[in-house]
Amino acid sequence: MSTHPVRSREAFFGRHKGKTLSPNQQALISERLPEVAVDLSQKAPGELTCLFDAQVRDVRLEIGFGGGEHLHLEAGRNPSTGFIGVEPFVNSMAKMLVALEEDPRPNLRLYADDATFLLDWLPDASLAGIDLFYPDPWPKKRHFKRRFVNVRNLDRFARVLKPGGHFRFASDIDTYVDWTLDHIADHAAFDAPAGTPEAWAQPYDGWPGTRYEAKALREGREPVYLSFVRRP
């Protein structure tokens, strides 16, 4: 099972577990997750590509994969890329493990704890991309400090991304989009997103949609899809 350094979680996520898992889901969490989990008790390899059963050329990270629709699809669409998916919510992790039992992805590894532990473990310039889709917006002002996009985490992204690598951010919450654009504008390591606000309303290539996104659209919130490039 993956482990983490001895320090407290940074509390960017809310609930850790929802409804009771089925016996099959519980078995997958106990037996299958340790087989595919990134083990932070081991020193990070110089080349992350060696973490995978498949032969891959580069590695991407998705933080908070939720239902896993995008991550599972992307890993299937890009077999020569390794993917690491982070999700501390147990029920979502169980759902991903069920999907992997039905349709395996040898180029996918998982991590079930605070993403900052993993980010701090990764080597410098080791990732081709980082995805953060529909993170918890923490809409109340007193909770803004719990938003994942902040100066410290952008510093972490800048350290682990290769020059030219992409940080992609999607949200249906206007205030969080503005917050992210402002933080990027103040950070020396990232370029502003290309295109116009109208173009930002277009999903990424191959985007499968998610259940959360469908709910946002039903409720009249328009998603925004941003992509920021790590400067050389």
TrEMBL record:
Q: Which SUPFAM superfamilies match?
A: S-adenosyl-L-methionine-dependent methyltransferases (SSF53335)
The record, for Pfam families, names: Methyltransf_4
- Swiss-Prot/TrEMBL catalytic activity: guanosine(46) in tRNA + S-adenosyl-L-methionine = N(7)-methylguanosine(46) in tRNA + S-adenosyl-L-homocysteine
InterPro entries membership: SAM-dependent_MTases_sf, tRNA_(Gua-N-7)_MeTrfase_Trmb, tRNA_methyltr_TrmB_bact
Q: What is its EC number?
A: 2.1.1.33
Q: What positions does the entry give for S-adenosyl-L-methionine binding? A: E62, E87, D114, D136
Q: State the pathway, as annotated in the record.
A: tRNA modification; N(7)-methylguanine-tRNA biosynthesis
Tagged with keyword Methyltransferase: yes
State the protein's purpose.
Answer: Catalyzes the formation of N(7)-methylguanine at position 46 (m7G46) in tRNA.
Q: What is this protein called?
A: tRNA (guanine-N(7)-)-methyltransferase
Taxonomic source organism = Aureimonas fodinaquatilis
